[in-house]
Amino acid sequence: MRSAWRILLRPGGLFRTERISFSGTLWNHLPSSQALRCFPSNSTFTPHYPSRANSEYPSRRFYSSEISSVEPCGEDHALLLDIFSGNSGLHDVETRLESADIKFDHGFLNSSLRSLDGKPDVAVRLFNWAAEKKPDLLSAETYNSMLGFFAAGGKSSEFWEMVEVMKKKGYCLSKNAFFKASKSFDQLIMHEDLGKLKELYASNSSENWVPRTASRVCKILREGDELGDEVWKSLKDLDPNYSSDLVFAVLEKLSSYPAKAFLFFRWASDNASFKPEGKSYNAMARILGREGSMERFWDLLQEMKLAGQGLEPETYLKVSRRFLSRGMTKEAVDFFEHAMDAGEKPSLRDFLHLMRKIVMCRELELHLVSRTVRIFKNGGYPLKDSIFGSVLKSVVSVGRLGECSSLLKAMEEGGFSASRAVTDRVAVELCRARKPDEALEFILEKEASGHKFDPKSWVSLIQCYSQVGSTEKCLSSFNRMIEKNGSEKVGFAFEALVTAHLRRSKVLDVYKVLSAMVEKNKLEPLQSTYKVLIKRLLSEGKLKEASSLLTLMKRHGYPPFIEPFFGYISKFGSGEDAMVFLKSMTVKSFPSISVFIRTLEGVLKAGRKETADDLLSKSPCFVRNHADVLNLVYSHNSPKGSPNPDLAPA
């Protein structure tokens, strides 16, 4: 097969002239209406091929597997059929095409050929004209289409001569052309040609020939440590036509040998049959994007940009992930910036992946955060709050919660505008990280620039100071909160303040602060705050202060918390203490009979008769003479089982 290709290049061989004359009788079998009207009747049919020396290879090559997506419109198709079906010479054809203003491109040419089944004379005239006037439009698909016309007409010699031309140009027999020609040869009982065709397809189809040839090329390239003259001589001796498909297949197999892959790519680029395009450029970029090849990698990207070739999503994804997995964070950001201006832009998902990897590095490089955000914004993407939330999760996962304010600042330098929800979240997260000083600094800094924080952020700050035991800062933060937001809805914050002071056993100080806040700032503590403080005051014998809190509870609409008082008075309280408690429970009349009975009963059950007598002596007459009170006293003074004389039968 290789020798057949060489014959084509010899002086006097098939490429001796720009025209190839096909002998045979195909056209004699066509109906007279389909005869070639543009040539004299005694001329031979001569499909025209562009010479190797004069052909210009386009930057975008099409392959046997490609099917054009462009179909000719009805009007243009009718005009094209009329022009190439007439008896006009090629000059007249050119004139009529210009006046019809038909826009020729690769897709239009091939779709036109597909529509000419049954009109081989028109197809050949169209092919000849394109080969002479627009050779850059001819591709593997074009040649495969012409094979169908020759096979359908039984033109064996013309069919195989075109196959040889295709081999030299590096084009393979397509599956569609194989099936079409096989059917024609079978119907025409051309068994010898059918056998040759099957053998050709097994060895020369794109599915078989490219990978087999690529393996042979790679074997030669891997043999030596250095690519010397012998290597290139061996590759030249193979004598394949280095099509884009073949170069791509070789590069895929050399992915672990970046230096050899790059030298082969440059060597193949000097071959007239290959011009680098997007597919091969991207394959080369995927190989070079690693340590040790970065200089060549950046040079290749610039070359791609100048050639108008963009990055494929697969290339960006593979190279970027490799950089990040190997700790090449700066290179990943540089590549992200290049990709934003080279073909299809990286997606939001790609941006978030890069940001997460940056903040999860061993050392947080905030300048890379700012730069990445700026690149993403300049690429036309909106910077939403959800972006910060996604990045913050990664910060939390590596234990850097305390650096969330620095992260936000770096993102803002890159163009991110933080909403109130974001700033509130940062303040809360700093408190969760037990860094209240940083949280306070962040809050004050943001408020100075016009931000207003939700009261929950202040609550988190005060609770955080409470947890670390800083009562002074807890109180000062609470006062700042009251100053900024007023005294409404500060119950949770005040409870945190109370808790912080109680940890240091300053119950009277807390009581004084609460009383002052209620009177001065109209503060409304939570019910739970009252309960905690009452229990603590009673545990330290401060019944008078605890009783005064019952009055405040009633003022704020809470039911008075009286249970702890009964236990305290029954064990430790005096008659005077009991009266102080009972007065605090007064609503309309003093005291409440039900509360008095419970208080007295507790004292009596504790066996403190003198305290009970003292309490009775200090009570009004209507209380002492109340039937329920008398029954209670009598039941504790009488022997067990003795009846009450006032209730005994006469």
Notes on the structure:
- The N and C termini lie far apart (140 Å).
- The chain contains 35 helices and no strands.
- Among the domains are: 2-207, no CATH class; 419-525, Serine Threonine Protein Phosphatase 5, Tetratricopeptide repeat (Alpha Horseshoe), CATH 1.25.40; 562-650, no CATH class.
- The chain has 650 residues and is mainly alpha-helical.
Entry keywords:
single chain; 650 residues; mainly alpha; Serine Threonine Protein Phosphatase 5, Tetratricopeptide repeat
Number of strands: 0
Taking pLDDT < 50 over at least 5 consecutive residues as the criterion, the unreliable ranges are 1-73, 641-650
Strand content: under 5%
Report the biggest beta sheet as strand number plus sense, adding barrel if it closes: none
Helix % is: 55-70%
Multimerization state: single chain
